[in-house]
Structure formats: structure tokens, C-alpha cells
Amino acid sequence: GAGVSQSPSNKVTEKGKDVELRCDPISGHTALYWYRQSLGQGLEFLIYFQGNSAPDKSGLPSDRFSAERTGGSVSTLTIQRTQQEDSAVYLCASSTTSDEQYFGPGTRLTVT
Amino acid sequence: GQSLEQPSEVTAVEGAIVQINCTYQTSGFYGLSWYQQHDGGAPTFLSYNALDGLEETGRFSSFLSRSDSYGYLLLQELQMKDSASYFCAVLSGNTGKLIFGQGTTLQVKP
Q1: Most buried of A99, B16, B43, B44, CB within 10 angstroms?
Q2: What is the pLDDT of residues B43-96, one digit of tens each?
Q3: Residue A63 per-residue DSSP state
Q4: Residues of A in contact with B2 (CB under 8 A)
Q5: What is the DSSP letter of A9?
Q6: pLDDT over 60 (residue A1)
Q7: Contact B45/A33, CB-based, under 8 Å?
């Protein structure tokens, strides 16, 4: 079946602009996660959704970052007033159980 | 703070066995996971240990000792396609939040 999909695959934006990243989880997966991965680094947790609510937003690095999920499915991560340090690959994962997460291919964000 | 330590690089030859160690210090612990990531690809799940001991899945095995805050991933009969980055990750709560290590780059040589 279809896996987790993310769009766009690549995004180049100018410093100060807003960006929206989209994640389509596997159908039926109630849990959805956003992570960030800088070059050559591990993944950094950003936010967790269960259904449409976000009980854990502890990883969002600043108030410029926000995320929402609608219909228990699609999620968007919004970064306002982007900065160069926001450049990274943004990965989305979904799951039905907490021990195995299925990751999408990621969105590579470059802020110039 | 929360931290996971794993070697940055490991090199081995085809057909050999390699062990990638992971030590962790986290505020919550539900289990230890391992993920594989090929260059430019998405991380894929390999294994999960919630209890002490060894879990075996084909050529890959994973071990956990909660009293030592330590685990390892064992890869047997190495193949060239096993060249990738391997991440240990602690499941830090019942929400599924994963705390990742920095990753170990495995290079398999002929």
C-alpha cells in the first residue's frame, strides 16, 4: 500500500519568507510525528499528533514553528519568517503503535 | 539532559559481523529502537527492544540492558547493501516520541 508522502520534496526560500510543508500519513495511522534532520546529524523530534490534537509540542524550536492536522490525516508544518538555521530535512512519520514509525521521504528546506 | 552515544563510523568487510553500540541517558525510557537510513533516503525501522535481552530478525539482532542503559545492533553476514547510517533511538514516553542518537555510518567493503 501507499507509504507516507511529503511535499514538496525540495523547497528553496528566501530568509524571512513563510513556508508550509505537507505530510500525508499512511491511511488509518492515528499517530503522526514531525522530525528535523540537519546534515549528517540524527533526527530531532518536533511535534506529535494523536488524531487532530497535539499532546506533545515540546520539540518545536521557537514560536515561528507551528503545525496542524486535519481530519486525522494530513498535517502541515508551517515555519514563519524563515532563518538560515531552519535549513534541514523535515521528516514526517506515522504509526499505529509507538514502537514502529514509518517515515516519509522528507522535505529538504534550504533558506538562502 | 538527554543523550545517546554511538560510534560515528564503522567499517567492515562483506560477510563479516559488526556490532554497533549505543548508550543512553534519558529522562524517560520505554524502549530502544534501531533505524536504518540510506543516503538521501527515509529512515526505516529495524528493531525495538522494550525488555532486556536479544531480539533476532533475520541477519539483524538487537540487544538491550536497561540496568546498563546500553544496547547494540548486530549485523551478520554483511552485504554491500548494508552500507548506510544506523540510528539508535529511545522511546521516551508513551506518546511515541523518539530521541535519536547522531547515527553510525557503516561502510561495507568488498
Answers
A1: B43
A2: 999 999 999 999 998 999 999 999 999 999 999 999 999 999 999 999 988 778
A3: T
A4: none
A5: S
A6: no
A7: no
